[in-house]
Amino acid sequence: MTNYSDVSENTEPLNVSAADKAHQWRICPIGKHYVKEHPLHIPSSRENPEGHDVKRRGHCADNPSHHDILSYDELQLITQNHFSNLIRLPSAGTLTQFPRADEFDRYIGGWVQYWNDIFKPEELLDPNSVKTLIASESSFRPESDTPQRTPGKNKVIGHARGLMQLTESTWRIISGQEHTGEIKDHFIFVNHADIIDPSANICVGVRWLFTKKTEARERLHRMATWDEAIAEYKGVLEGIIENTNPDPEHKMQKFHALYTLLSKG
Questions:
Q1: Which has more pLDDT, 98 or 10?
Q2: Backbone angles phi, psi at 229, to 5 degrees
Q3: Per-residue pLDDT tens for 177-205?
Q4: Which CATH class is domain 68-263?
Q5: Is 36 helix (H, G, I), strand (E, B) or coil?
Q6: Residue 43 near residue 31, CB atoms below 8 Å
Q7: Phi/psi of residue 189, nearest 5 degrees
């Protein structure tokens, strides 16, 4: 049932205690997700037979799962409100072979800081690692859409999309649509069309990289480095560990070469 006390011609600010939020940049407390202002049709009644259209204020809606959920609407507001004055950004000016190399630096810096703050790893994720990962995955092309095929066959089983080449399976897991054990909290609700939005893609990709670090630790039976997490992200860590098929496409060699070049900046 619509709560008409939330209906107004204007959007009003939401006041939520920082202690109730997963991160200081968030709008809604844990257990709720943000829904931006949107048109709402109030149905007809005896007093108003034709009904009428109003705007519903931006508001925090309950999460049925009670987990932390970052909505696309809130993700966009965080980008707009907090990414213009960041201190720690990736290096710029060195990856000149990529025309758009420095275009997404604030998104990278912002989401690396956000997820470092959320998970508090002993070794902080370096924005240069994420920028290099994007260079090696999509060459900084947000429209990149790569068919994913079954090993040894030519059957397309999905697509990897956007700057960080997120697969459809990753998108479903991150949003909580597919429960396989990798993600237990800090879900991100981004629809299929919005996953190629640069800020949303980087947000989801960095979140997924933290998950890959956990999976790398389980493979190695010790704390994993971010380099090993990136190898897991690229799907080559198992072959490297077992020395059965260690990185046949030289993905990590290419990553390291780009990282060295970027670090010169």
A1: 98
A2: -65, -40
A3: 876 667 889 999 999 889 999 999 999 99
A4: mainly alpha
A5: coil
A6: no
A7: -95, 100
Q: Cα–Cα distance between 129 and 108 in angstroms, integer? A: 10
Among residues 64, 73, 65, the alpha carbon closest in space to that of 28 is found at: 73
Per-residue confidence (pLDDT) for residue 1, from 0 to 100? 33
Q: Residue 219's pLDDT is what?
A: 96
- DSSP calls for 157-218: EEEEETTTTEEHHHHHHHTTSS-SSS-SS-EEE--TTGGGSHHHHHHHHHHHHHHHHHHHHH
Rg of the chain on CA atoms, in Å: 21
Enter the tokens of residue 220.
């190695």
Residues 213-235 have a mean pLDDT of 97
Helix residue ranges, H only, 9-126: 72-82, 105-119
Domain ranges within the chain, ordered by starting residue: 1-66, 68-263
| pLDDT computed for residue 46 by the predictor | 74
